[in-house]
C-alpha cells in the first residue's frame, strides 16, 4: 500500500508552529523569525513535503533563475546578455540574483533553502555562474527535479553536473605562446583564486607553454585572492619587487590585468615598453584600458546562451548534448604587448 503524502499540518506539527506560519515559510512570505523559518524548512526536508494544493498554474510559463557570485563585473554582464538573448528566443522568463551584493567582502553560500524555494515556485531550472556549489546543493536540485547548469564552476563537481565554460587551458597556452613569440623569456603569472577551476586550468596552460619553450616562469606573487583589480595590483607589486622582475605578465582575467596596469603606471613604468601585459576574458573593459589590452577572448555571450538552452533541455527531460561544454578561446592582440627591450 502506498504511504500517505506528508501534509502541511504534519510539517507544522513537526516544527511546533501553526499551519499559517508553516504556509508563510513555504511561500516565502515575511513575518516569520529566522529561527522559526529554519525549523519549518528542516521539517519540510525531513518529511519530504511537496505542496499539492492551492491555485497552482497547471502549466506555468517557463522561467530560469540565474545566480551570480556578483553583478559588479563586466564578465557577469556579458554572460547575462547571452542568457537574456536565449531567453527571448525560447520565450523563457529570466530571474537573476547575486550572492555578493556590491560592497560585500565574500559571497554568501547558495543554500539548499534557495533551491527549495525555486522548486516551490516551479522554476524550470537553475543556472549558477562562477559560484561555489556544495554537494548538498547539487543533491537538492536532483531530489527536487530542478535542472542545474553551472557556468565556469569555481570548485570541482561530480561528473553528473552539467557545466559550460571555455577552453581555459588552451587560452593559457595561447596567451603565453604569444608573449614567448615576441621574445619574452621571463613571464610571470598573476593568477586567479587558488580554488577556482578556470584559474587552475589557465595556470596549467601557462606552465605547459613555458615548459615546452624551455623557459622558466617569472617570479610568483603571494597567493592570489580574487579576480579583482585590487588583487591584480597587489600581485603586480610582488612580481615587480622581485630581484629579477619579468618583461611580461599574463593576468588570469581582465580585471586582474587592470590592477597590473595601475601598479605599473604608479611606478612610473610604461606598458608595453617596460612591461607587456596579457589579460583573459575580453570584456568591454579591455578596450577602455590605456593602452588597449591584449587578451584571450572567452565567448561569454555564447556561454550564457548555451547554458540557457541546456537548462531548458533538462527541464523538458531531455539529455544534454554534452555534460561538459567547453567553447573555444582565441587571442586578441591589441597594444599592451610588444617585443622586450632586452632579450631577458
Provide a descriptive summary of the structure in words.
This protein is an alpha/beta fold and 344 residues long. The protein has three domains: 8-47; 63-166 and 300-328, Rossmann fold (3-Layer(aba) Sandwich); 168-299, Rossmann fold (3-Layer(aba) Sandwich), CATH 3.40.50.2300. It has helices at residues 8-15, 19-26, 34-47, 74-90, 112-120, 135-144, 168-181, 197-212, 229-240, 254-266, 285-288, 300-315; strands at residues 63-68, 93-98, 125-129, 147-151, 162-166, 187-190, 248-251, 276-281, 294-297, 324-327, 330-332. It has a six-stranded parallel β-sheet, sandwiched between helices. It has a five-stranded mixed β-sheet with strand order 6-7-8-9-11, with helices on both faces. Strand 8, helix 11 and strand 9 (294-297) form a beta-alpha-beta unit. Residues 53-58 have low confidence and may be disordered.
Q: How is the topology of this model organized?
A:
Layout: H1 8-15, H2 19-26, H3 34-47, E1 63-68, H4 74-90, E2 93-98, H5 112-120, E3 125-129, H6 135-144, E4 147-151, E5 162-166, H7 168-181, E6 187-190, H8 197-212, H9 229-240, E7 248-251, H10 254-266, E8 276-281, H11 285-288, E9 294-297, H12 300-315, E10 324-327, E11 330-332
Parallel strand pairs: 1-2, 1-3, 3-4, 4-5, 5-10, 6-7, 7-8, 8-9
Antiparallel strand pairs: 9-11
Helix pairs in contact: 1-2, 1-3, 4-12, 5-6, 7-8, 9-10
Instruction: Describe the main β-sheet briefly.
Output: 6 strands, parallel
Give the proportion of residues in helices: 40-55%
CATH topology of the largest domain: the name is Rossmann fold
Q: What's the total helix number?
A: 12
Tell me the overall shape.
Answer: elongated
**Please, what is the oligomeric state?**
single chain
Amino acid at each position: 500500500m502506498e504511504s500517505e503524502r506528508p501534509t502541511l499540518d504534519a510539517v507544522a506539527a513537526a516544527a511546533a508552529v501553526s499551519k499559517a506560519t508553516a504556509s508563510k515559510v513555504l511561500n516565502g512570505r515575511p513575518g516569520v523569525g529566522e529561527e522559526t523559518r529554519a525549523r519549518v524548512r528542516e521539517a519540510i526536508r525531513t518529511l519530504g513535503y511537496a505542496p499539492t494544493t492551492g491555485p497552482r498554474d497547471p502549466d506555468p510559463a517557463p522561467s530560469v533563475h540565474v545566480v551570480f557570485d556578483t553583478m559588479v563585473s563586466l564578465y557577469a554582464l556579458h554572460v547575462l546578455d547571452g542568457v537574456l538573448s536565449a531567453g527571448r528566443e525560447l520565450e523563457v522568463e529570466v530571474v537573476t540574483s547575486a550572492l555578493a551584493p556590491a560592497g560585500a567582502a565574500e559571497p554568501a553560500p547558495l543554500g539548499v533553502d534557495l533551491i527549495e524555494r525555486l522548486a516551490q515556485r516551479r522554476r524550470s531550472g537553475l543556472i549558477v555562474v562562477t559560484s561555489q556549489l556544495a554537494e548538498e546543493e547539487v543533491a537538492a536540485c536532483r531530489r527536487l527535479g530542478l535542472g542545474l547548469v553551472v557556468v565556469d564552476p569555481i570548485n570541482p563537481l561530480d561528473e553528473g553536473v552539467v557545466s559550460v565554460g571555455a577552453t581555459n587551458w588552451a587560452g593559457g597556452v595561447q596567451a603565453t605562446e604569444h608573449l614567448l613569440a615576441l621574445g619574452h623569456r621571463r613571464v610571470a603569472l598573476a593568477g586567479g583564486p587558488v580554488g577556482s577551476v578556470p584559474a587552475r586550468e589557465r595556470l596549467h596552460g601557462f606552465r605547459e607553454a613555458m615548459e615546452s619553450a624551455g623557459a622558466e616562469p617569472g617570479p610568483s606573487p603571494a597567493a592570489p585572492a580574487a579576480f579583482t583589480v585590487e588583487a591584480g595590483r597587489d600581485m603586480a607589486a610582488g612580481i615587480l619587487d622581485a630581484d629579477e622582475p619579468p618583461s611580461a605578465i599574463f593576468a588570469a582575467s581582465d580585471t586582474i590585468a587592470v590592477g597590473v596596469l595601475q601598479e605599473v603606471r604608479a611606478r612610473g613604468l610604461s606598458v608595453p615598453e617596460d612591461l607587456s601585459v596579457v589579460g583573459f576574458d575580453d570584456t568591454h573593459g579591455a578596450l577602455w584600458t590605456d593602452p588597449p589590452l591584449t587578451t584571450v577572448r572567452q565567448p561569454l555571450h555564447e556561454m550564457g546562451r548555451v547554458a540557457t538552452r541546456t537548462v531548458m533541455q533538462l527541464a523538458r527531460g531531455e539529455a544534454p548534448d554534452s555534460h561538459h561544454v567547453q567553447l573555444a578561446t582565441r587571442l586578441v592582440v591589441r597594444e599592451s604587448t610588444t617585443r622586450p627591450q632586452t632579450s631577458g
